[in-house]
Write a structure and sequence with these properties.
The structure holds two protein chains of two kinds.
Chain A lengths: L50 H18 L13 E6 L5 H12 L3 E6 L11 H10 L4 E6 L4 H8 L4 E7 L5 H15 L6 E5 L6 H12 L3 E5 L7 H5 L9 E3 L3 H5 L4 E4 L5 H4 L6 H8 L3 H4 L7 E3 L12 H4 L6 H21 L8
Helix pairs in contact in A: 1-5, 1-13, 2-13, 5-6, 5-13
Chain B lengths: L4 E10 L4 E10 L2 E3 L10 E4 L4 E4 L1 E6 L12 H10 L2 E6 L10 H14 L3 E4 L15 H7 L4 E2 L8 H14 L3 E3 L16 H6 L6 H18 L3 E3 L5 H12 L4 E5 L1 H5 L37 H13 L4 E2 L8 H4 L16 H10 L5 H8 L1 H7 L17 E11 L18 E11 L2 E5 L4
Parallel strand pairs in B: 1-4, 1-5, 6-7, 7-8, 9-10, 10-11, 11-12, 12-13
Antiparallel strand pairs in B: 1-2, 2-3, 5-14, 14-15, 15-16
Helix pairs in contact in B: 1-2, 2-3, 4-6, 6-7, 7-9
Chain lengths: 355, 446
Amino acid sequence: MMGSVRNPTSPPDGSPSPRTEARASPLKGEEGSDGAAHRRRHVLDLDDFSREEITALLDSADAMRELLSRSIKKAPSLRGKVVLTLFLEPSTRTRVSFEQAGKMLSADVINISGSGSSAEKGESLLNTALTLQAMHADVIVIRSPHSGAPYFLARNLQRMGVVNAGDGRHAHPTQALLDLMTMRHHIGGLEGKRVVIVGDVLHSRVARSDVFGLQALGASVVLCGPPTLIPLDLLRGGEGESLPDVSVEHDLDRAIDDADAVIALRIQQERQGAGMLPSMREYTRRWQVTEARYRRAKPGALLMHPGPMNEGVEIASSLAHGPGSQIEEQVTNGVAVRMALLYQLLTGGQEEVSE
Amino acid sequence: MSRSILITGARVIDPVSGSDRTGDLFIRDGVITASPETAPVDTLVVDGKGLVAAPGFIDLHAHLREPGFEDRESIETGTAAAAAGGFTTVCAMPNTSPAIDTAAVVDFITHRAREAGPIRVLAFGAVSRGRKGVELTDMEELARAGAVGFTDDGSPVATGLLMEKALLYAGELGLPVMDHCEDHSITAGLGMHEGAVASRLGLAGYPSAAEESLVARDIALLGLTGGHFHVAHVSTAGGVEMVRMAKRRGLRVTAEVTPNHLTMTDEWVLGANGPADGIAGSLTLAAYETRAKVSPPLRSRTDRDALIEGLCDGTIDAVATDHAPHTFGDKATPFDEAAVGISTLETALGSLMSLVRSGAIDLPTLVARLTTGPASVLGERFANLASLAVGTPADIVLFDPEECWTVDVSRFASKGKNTPLAGQTLQGRVRMTIAGGEIAFGKVGR
């Protein structure tokens, strides 16, 4: 994204005009705003990634993946850099993935979790982050149950980069990047490709980031799921869209027709108790990716899931462990993408990766 | 005895008499007096040229936080903020600690207000003991101590049954029941309007329906019980329409709206610079603006337009600030965790004047909604406070409708610096506030 200065939104007629914003620069992710090439400082979202930036990052991730397949999985590129992971929500794959990505590039990775840390003693997120910044870490990777928490940190941290590892139901940019990497690897360019995202779209940060990434690469996106798990504004339409150019189709049979890829989202069993779903049985009957439904997609269509998967719920077991499933490859690509991202953030892509 | 004050050559707007003329106002012994041929020698003469003189504003809804939350505000700082905003009367909300649910707490507030200065503080009592939504407070005793109405604000009156009893009991005392209309079983998240902006940000929304369903409940009950139902901070087009229809049916229902809901929308949560390319565009670092988190939430442009229309046609009786001061730490958090509320007393006039400049409302009507409107909600005995007639208490605001100023929260009298207007330029500024004949705010001379 170029650092063009944004026009303030025209103030609604009659409202005081927002003329001088006292706080942060409105730009995110970049050092300056003079229109020259910028070095990204934060990764908060995918909404500010251009096609070119995504493509370059995925190219770099391809090279990282090669390093992953070596017997000695280590490069010195990030020696002397400190990466903090602050996970305020349970996570295995994303945290380990970031940790491995940092360590393979020789960064020092320090993991902090919500329990057992000062967060448990009631320290505010702001004070925790300022403390960590004072220890001269280079980048903080944050997972938070609160949408926008990475924006909050980026606004308040002057010397430390922020990487969003999933915030509430808002965004999960590295998951979307690994999804894009997986799709690109198997079906090449995504221009004009049809991707179905099925499941709990309402609560899904993965869906929101996937949509922006897929749009940037020219794919079309169909969202599918129970009406109780699709954002109300997308159901109503016509009030200014919260997501660009997506279509909503409740019938999975119709949605999946001719799809190039299907991403099934995790269903949280608690949703049933909250009245969002009649029963898991009904959900499975209507929105599980079954053998029969998968046959309606393009031959060889990719089947993906951000994990952790409920076996036999979102995707029929036979399919999840069958040849169309990319679920394990997604995990591998996750490490590669996070290596590429940390490398880009911490070196600006200046250093050599190979020894 | 305070000095006599003569304001000369101001545009004097008196909504009671309906007069809007250029002239003088003379204040002596705390009351408005006929202008003398020659003023006494020690009279303070204030040049009102280019300024508007109006009855002091009356705020039906302010959180002064004392007793219990003095780190956010005190009666002293809250009344100073009121004076700076042109308000000579403020109604204190009872969500204090302890709640205003006994005569002793009303007495305490009255006492503290008297110590603080000339701004009149009127207390709303709680509807339910401890604001717990179970038993009614001793309403008659509260009323005798000076409570001007009842509300569990911050929370709705918990059940339809309790609201029914409150309307009956307060109705017999001739006092309003103010309800914060929010069906908690519908609101998933606080401080964010359910709509495209919430969806874009991944924030759980508070749909308009959660307000509308409780306004509907309370109006239905009012039809059953009689009495006086006052809608606190109405924020939705549907709420305004229901109040309009209920008034047409002859029910005693009144409503207030905040300056914030009249001038801002949910897009303010995206940050003052918003996304240049629509809601679906890329967010800026200013997104998740906790200072724009308020309950009820800032709503859509459609709602805002309906609120303005309702204010103009009298469906909405009063502008009330819902002044809700918070500490820095209360707002320096991710959006979900931030406290709800905006510090509003000192920006109210500047915000509202933008509606006058855009032609959405005329100045005399706006002044009426800040004076006679709220006075009528409080009842006949307070009509004097909104009048500039000779013999009425000298509660007067003098403001410059043209002056541009930048909102510098560090200079707020309020302890609450929490406003999304920080750093922005407003036009229209209070120059002097006189309460009971005493100068509560303003520099002497120019």
